[in-house]
Amino acid sequence: MRLAGKKALMIGAATGIGRAAAIQFADNGADIVIADINRPAAEETVASLAKTGRHASAIACDVREEASVRDAVAAAESRMNGIDTLVFFAGLQRLGHAEQFSAADWDAVFDVNARGTFLATKYAAPAIRKAGGGSIITTSSLAGLRGAPGMTGYAAAKGAVIAYTVALAQELAPDNIRVNSVLPGWIDTPFNNPAIALMGGVEAHGEVVKRIVPLGRQGTPDEVAPIYVFLASEESRYITAKQMMVDGGMAH
Length: 252
Ligand SMILES: NC(=O)c1ccc[n+]([C@@H]2O[C@H](COP(=O)([O-])OP(=O)(O)OC[C@H]3O[C@@H](n4cnc5c(N)ncnc54)[C@H](O)[C@@H]3O)[C@@H](O)[C@H]2O)c1
Known about the structure:
Blueprint: E1 7-11, H1 16-27, E2 31-36, H2 39-47, E3 56-60, H3 66-80, E4 85-88, H4 103-130, E5 134-139, H5 143-146, H6 152-172, E6 177-184, H7 193-198, H8 202-212, H9 221-232, E7 243-246
Parallel strand pairs: 1-2, 1-4, 2-3, 4-5, 5-6, 6-7
Helix pairs in contact: 1-9, 3-4, 4-6
The protein binds nicotinamide-adenine-dinucleotide.
């Protein structure tokens, strides 16, 4: 029960890494509201949490729409009687080498990953301040630090998330609000299917993973979720403005 009494708004937690984190948050005693563009999947995740006895509910939210983000924060605050934790997972990947990449795809990856992170934190920060402080956790990617061929637009957007997180951490520290970013490496979710196709298919991708990941395999969402639990918990109360890599040792 490392999150007993916490009230978390989890944006983009309907599937994948966010879903695994939502389950671990509820198992650790947090109330949660999942806000996601995929409302049916968000409802399904919430239904699987009924046994925890904590508040768990879903809201439709498109992080590309400012009003939608603002309304999701207000709804979560009213449903849980406050918010002290914001976790942002929503992500979009568009692939292609820079010379072939369209400006529309560039805007699309920035809209969801970078601008979405900005909007969510902009509206959630006052609520967390009102609660006396808390934790904001953004989701970047190892690509946001290291880049990768075919991922220039996505890498740039995830790099923006890192820089934004570090700047925001300094702005909000006086209010006892910590802001950190999680940087997953290769994690086994359908999110990567287009990247795996670009790399030549599952077998070719598997060979690359074996070569570049010291632990020799992809991670699972369940293996990334605990870092979010830690960053939301009081155990991490002296940790802010950090990039937490969960990558099987890929960055070394
Ligand atoms: N899987 C990986 O290997 C990996 C690696 C590095 C970073 N990440 C990042 O982790 C996060 C989660 O990825 P995942 O692998 O769990 O994939 P996922 O597709 O399961 O999760 C993305 C979630 O964001 C939601 N979403 C997408 N667009 C949205 C929008 N406009 N408004 C609201 N919600 C929206 C989706 O419905 C989904 O629930 C993403 O930010 C991704 O960039 C993933």
